[in-house]
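Feature request disguised as a bug: please show the residue count (158) next to F173A methyltransferase in the output. Example input:
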Amino acid sequence: PLCPQVPYQPSSPRQVANTLALLRGRAGKTVDLGSGDGRLVLEAYKQGLRPALGYELNPWLLCLANYRAWKAGYHGKVSFLKKDLWKVNLSDCHNVIVFLAPSVKPPLAAKLLAELPDDARVVAGRYPFPSWTPSSSLGQGLDQVWAYDIKEVRREAQ
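Example output, currently without the count:
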């Protein structure tokens, strides 16, 4: 697939809070696709979502994420990996956070549906998945986030 350059915008504290609220009470491996400076991964770990990891291609942001993890005392507890999200297998991920541009959403939707387990939940920030119906949503405007339960999305797609 094409890899459009996604401009980096750090999530606001409200976006982070809304995202984690939609994952509250869940368990299992949590990944942030395009994890930026790592703030969502660190918050996920703090709230008990483990293992928590982020995939990010920008070396400066990876550096910043690792520094923030170290500063928070989470060094070695969370992971930030320089990997192309199109090449990562997501079949063991139960919680997926996606704050990526609209152009990435359609090919990503296909990848997530093909790989994620039935009990997985995807939380999208800034832009919803155009072809999916969210199971819930929180916030307004730029702070809005949408949650999708993969089992429901698959049922709808059939």
